[in-house]
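ugh ok fine here u go
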Amino acid sequence: MLVTEFKIRYFEALLDFIWRQWTLMGIPGHIAGKKQSYVIDPEALLLFSAWFCRYDQRLYDLVTDYLRVNGDFINIQRLKSLSKKVYLFDSSSLGVMVSTMGDSGERRWTKFAKDLLPNRVASPEPLFLSFDGQGSDFLRLSDKRALQYGFIRNQYVPSGKTVTFPNCKATFWLQLRGAFGRNARSETILMLLNKKICNIQDIANISGFSWKSIQTALAELQGANIIATKNAEKRGRYYFLKNPQNILSLFEQQDVSLPDWRHIYDALTIIFKTVTNPRLESLSEQTMYSEIELMFREKIGESLLHSGIDALSFLNTEALDRLPDLLANL
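structure:
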């Protein structure tokens, strides 16, 4: 595998993959090929996009547009929780995105944007990057919001093209929030639709909510006669929906497939940061493979084994060259 050739193919495939995901979520764009068969995790996608979309200003601004239109369906509490777990969290870039939400006057977004302000702003750097890691220095009119977060960029102007998210499998998580609220109940219902039967920790691990929040949501849903339990022992208790098809039929869905997007995005990030490191190109082929093997062993490990996407479950050094093609088919 030639690193120079692979990193270009990988970057293009990864950018196309993220474009397709956001297009399925509702930003303007054309999607070719099969329909999305997975539910997309909005918060995990947003955290990944905060750093990766800095390589594509058009997509970055469309994601910002998306938040302005669909921000009511984003769970800030969960966003904060996941931000502490992801491999790479670009808090300042996310701050630039969400600071535009202050225009709506909604306090929760205004407060979150302030929380993301850097403690100390050094010399501003370009927000948008070229693939070689260099920033774009062409500037017409500086964006004051971006400067607050330590970035230089042209003034952000909403496109006005983004609309409310579509009703499809990809946006099922957002649809549940519209029906059941932006809270742990919606996340719990989704996890039970996905795994059929779960304990509290199973739901907490994927949802990003605390053990206590999930326990409370389960008690509420049990009181409403929506879920039932198996095993009377408190610590070994499992929960399941009594009539999952009734809930699915409300949203015109046949089933739910929710991959572990947080670990998938983390793995894709680790691979990107590894293969785009200029140091890798100066190594011998044998040493390069040793570095990549070390990356899989120490940073990715078995995190993809139960990701929920078979094509990625057994990704390793030998299969890495096929990753751009795998992404093209997701």
